[in-house]
Each structure stands twice: as structure tokens, then as C-alpha cells.
Amino acid sequence: MRKSNLFIILLLPFFAISIVNAQDENSLKISGELLTDERFLFKSPNDWAWNENRLTLKLDKKTERSKFYSEVWLRNIGLPSITSSSDLYNKGIVDPYNLEIREAYVQLYGFLTKNLDVTIGRQRIVWGTADKLNPTDNLNPLDLEDILDFGRRRGSDAINFNYYFNSDFSLQGVFIPFFQPANMPVGIFANALNPTMELPQGMVLKGVSDTIMTPRYNLGESSKAGLKFKGFAKGVDFSVSYVWGYDGLPFATRNTLIPVDAMGGTNMTSQLSFAWTHIIGADLATSIAGIGFWAEAAAFLPESDVIMTNDLTAFYPMSPTPVTQDSLILDKTKPYIKFVVGGDYNFSDGSYLNFQYMHGFIHERGAENLNDYFFLRYEKMFLNNKLKIAPIGGGFIVTEWSNIKDNYALVYMPEIAYKATVNSEITLSTVIFDGKGDNLFANLKDYNMLMFKLKYSF
């Protein structure tokens, strides 16, 4: 039976319950949206860059002492990857789709004591006050599938406790028993986060393969936990937090280089490993004269040194001992800090301005590898808030201040959105990359594209 048919069958009882209890204020509520997201490249021959049709279904039920919530994505995503006639017999290849449970949890209010709430199940635990890019938001794994969807993360199977001292102060404790790595970009962005590999002079990389060393799934090795104290005082929301667990992005900790020809051709086999990290965070948000301000920072403290070893033994067959070169990637004695400061303002004429400065993007680790990002967005509403035009949107990135002209990136993302009905919105936007040097967004300058989205909410 196909996944989509099974999904519909599983949903029928929920629809039936909702209809039977239509007059009950605590009945199961069903909502969601349909999203069509299409993108193509400006560069000839105008290849299709993204194809996604996503049905989001949200089920929500509340009682006096509990809440049930789930969010499911049913998607047709990607383009057919047909390489042989046998693929034509597989509808999953001809018409790719997937089913993803984003969240599914039960929240119990007043658990054991009236001041304690507990949430059990798959949940998205959002930490931080900045706009989308949050250095302190480290409990859930990164969802990097769409690299332009900044800040997206997957849900985690977790036990989440919230104890409320009073209406202004609370303490949160989270335990996640299973390690979850980040999932990487797909489609044309598949190699966007792969680091540039520098080989010794005279070597030419011909082939690459790798293996990933994942933590053993037990309570001692694969779990993650966090604590957060949150408060409100004198008009300021603030929190301090602590997370310990594995970083969801792997490091290349051992590269074995093997010669394949007399011209310097080399194959490389990499071993990828995950590093245990302690993260201390703090954030605040307030409003002054109608202007919203926020600041957020996180200090990352590696549990141990992360060392990359290059094994060159195959190039020295007569050597009595292995020939290796070690490089220190992360020094446990040198914590590094990522932070964001920003603000926004709604003008009386219906326009909106948002600015953020960020030091250290989501994939950057180590103090010497953190770059500076400046994000700006300006938008204005027209036609009784039906039409939104954002002529300014994007960011400017500096990777080396001493030589900006050769180490920068520019991202320009203007947008026009129109609410055709109360439930539907059509968006047309573009993204243009430019820059020099070795940085994430400068490396995407061949992928300038036009994007069309249709969203219908119900």
C-alpha cells in the first residue's frame, strides 16, 4: 500500500471524531495549509532548481488539563531522477514524495504539582529571541534541506518539563534520548556546505568517499539535555540556558589519501565524527518607543580537541611507520561565541523594517572561522494590506575585514506577495548571489533564481 493511501486511512478516524464532536469546544481541531514552491535558475538553460508541493495537516485538541498536537507534512518534492528503464516501474522515482511527522506530542498541565507542565513526544523546542537565526536554539537538529529556509529545524522525541515559579519566572528542563544529526541540503544546494579540501601540492582529487561514525544509541552516549531559566523584569524578556550533547554537523576527523595514477591523481576516504559540546546561552528582548530590540549569544565549549588526521602512508610504501599529518580543528581550551543583535519597527504608513547583525552562521565552528552577517528587510503594505512589496531584502557578509573586496558576499532577495483571498497568498521573489572568496553565499553565485509560491491556509 502506498504511503499516501495509508496516510489518508489513518486520518479518517480523526475526521470522524471532529465531525461527531463538532459542537464540543474541546473537539479535535484540524487546520493546515497547501504550499506550492517552484524555482528555476536565471542562468541558461534555466534548469529547474526546486519543485515542492506540500500539504501540512495540524491536529490540535485541548482540555482543561492536557493538550494534543501534531503536524504532518505530505509532500511531492524534487524532480524525477530516472537513470534506467527500471526506474520507470518505481512511482517513487517517477513522482517522488515523502511523509514526515514534524511534531506529535501530548502536553499535561499541572503534572504532579499545579506549577509543573510536562510535554512528551516529538516536539519543536524553540529557544532564542532573534529572528529565525538563533545561536541558543540547539536542542532540535538542523533541517538544512532548503538552505534558503533560514532557521528551520526538525522536531525531536523529548521529555520537556516547565516549572513556573510565578507569572514572570520559569525553569525548563529538556531530555532528548536519541541523537539526531542535521540533514543536509538537497538538489542544486547539495554541496553548499561541503568545505573546500586543500590537498598537498601536486595532488589532484579524483574521487571522494566517506563513512560516518555515529554515537552508540544508549542513555550515556546518544542523549542530549538542556536547562533554561526564563524571566520578565522591567519590560525585558530574558533567559539563560545550557545545553550539552553532540553537535549535529559532523567533522572530518581522518582522511586517507591513496594515489591512483602517476599524474598526481588521488582518491580520498574520509571518516566523519560528531563532537560533544557544551553550550551556554543568553538572550533578551524588549521594546523602546515602539522599536523592538533583541540580543542573543551562545558560547560553545568543545568537550575535547577535534583533530583532523591526513593519512599519506600510501604515498610512502617503503616507510616503516604510518605517515600522517594532524591539524587541530577545534581547541577545547578556546571556546567560541556566536551572537545576534537586531531590531524591527512598524511604521504608521504600513511599512516594516527589520535589521540583524550576526557573528557566526549555523555551520561555522571555531573562533577563527566565524564570519559577520548583516541582514536587512524593508516591506510596505498596499491595497488594504492585500499587497506586500519588499524591495529591500537580503544580506551582506564579510569573511575577512582586512581585505573586504576579495572576501565578501551579497544576497539580494526582493519579494512581492498578494493575498488573493483571506486564505490564499501568492508570492513572487528572486534571489541573487554575488561575492568573492571562499564563503557559503559567494559560492552560490551561479544559482541566481526566480521563485514562485502559492500558500492556501485552512
Task: List strands and helices in order, with pairings.
Blueprint: H1 3-20, E1 29-41, E2 48-62, E3 66-77, H2 91-94, E4 97-108, E5 116-123, E6 156-164, E7 169-176, E8 204-213, E9 224-233, E10 236-246, E11 251-259, E12 265-273, E13 276-288, E14 291-302, E15 306-311, E16 324-330, E17 336-346, E18 351-359, E19 372-382, E20 387-398, E21 408-412, E22 415-418, E23 424-436, E24 449-457
Parallel strand pairs: 8-12, 11-15
Antiparallel strand pairs: 1-2, 1-24, 2-3, 3-4, 4-5, 5-6, 6-7, 7-9, 9-10, 10-13, 11-12, 13-14, 14-17, 15-16, 17-18, 18-19, 19-20, 20-21, 20-22, 21-23, 22-23, 23-24
Textual characterization of the structure:
Strand 19 (372-382) and strand 20 form a beta hairpin. Residues 19-23 have low confidence and may be disordered. The strands form two sheets. This protein has a 19-stranded antiparallel β-sheet that branches. Strands 8-12-11-15-16 form a five-stranded mixed β-sheet, with no helix packed on it. With 458 residues, it is mostly beta strands. The two termini are 28 Å apart. Helix content is 5%, strand content 52%. The chain is built from two helices and 24 strands. It is globular, with a radius of gyration of 25 Å.
Question: Key features?
Answer:
458 residues; mainly beta; 19-stranded antiparallel sheet; 2 helices; 24 strands; 5% helix; globular
Q: Kindly name the structural category.
A: mainly beta
Mean pLDDT reading: 92
Total number of helices = 2
Assembly form of the protein: single chain
Low-confidence stretches: 19-23
Strand content: over 45%
